[in-house]
Amino acid sequence: MVNTLNAGEAGRYIDTAEFTRLGTELSGRTSLGAFGRFGEGLPQQPDGWVTWSLQGARDSGGQSFLLVTLKAQPVLQCQRCLEPFVFDVNVSNRVQVVSRESDLDDDEGDDDAPERVLGGRRFDVLSFIEDELILAVPYVPRHEICPSAVAVPVAPEPVPEDTRPSPFAVLEQLKQKH
């Protein structure tokens, strides 16, 4: 079952237990500007889109997961040259759904443990997509190579022979003082 969801629709909430049990899929295309928390502190965003999908799944042990993918091209500010640039966001993530807050911190310190999110009967899909979008942006964004840093090397102008000081000039001055 595939549904399409846009910002502001009543169907933006799901019951995660039912969603993962049925293996439901939900997808959408939401304006970049609809994600207010994401835009805080960023340059003015173009009229771009976040294309996303969410699929529920369960493993053989009965654990519930959300498989999320999203693509976007937000404008970030390079922290080296302070110029804006378009950053390609391409997320594909598997997040475990837990039913109690105490389960969120299980396996603390285990780098291989899946990310976890607290599920429920009224899980806000677009807030979850926004969280994934925020996590996809680097803490210190920067160009691969800053445009202002790319300069054509300039060869130094040759100094004519007759204007170069002699390395022995200082010795000649010392000799004349004595």
Keywords:
two-stranded antiparallel ribbon, 4 helices, about 180 residues, disordered N terminus, alpha+beta
Protein described:
The chain is of the alpha+beta class and 178 residues long. It has one domain. Helices cover 18% and strands 30% of the residues. It contains four helices and ten strands, in the order ββαβαβββββββαα. The chain has a six-stranded mixed sheet. A hairpin with a 6-residue loop joins β6 and β7. The radius of gyration is 29 Å and the shape is elongated. 19% of the residues are buried. The N terminus is likely disordered.
Summarize the structure.
With 178 residues, this protein is of the alpha+beta class. The protein is built from four helices and ten strands.
Total DSSP E strands: 10
Principal-axis shape equals elongated
Order of helices and strands: EEHEHEEEEEEEHH
Query: How many angstroms does the end-to-end distance come to?
Result: 101 Å
Major sheet summary line: 6 strands, mixed
Domain unit count = 1
List low-pLDDT spans. 1-8
Order of strands in the sheet with most strands? 1-3-4-5-8-9
What oligomeric state do these chains adopt?
A: single chain
- pLDDT averaged residue by residue: 82
Computed CA radius of gyration, to the nearest angstrom: 29 Å
In percent terms, what proportion of residues is strand? 25-35%
Percent helix, as a range, is: 10-25%
Kindly name the structural category: alpha+beta
Count of alpha/pi helices:
4
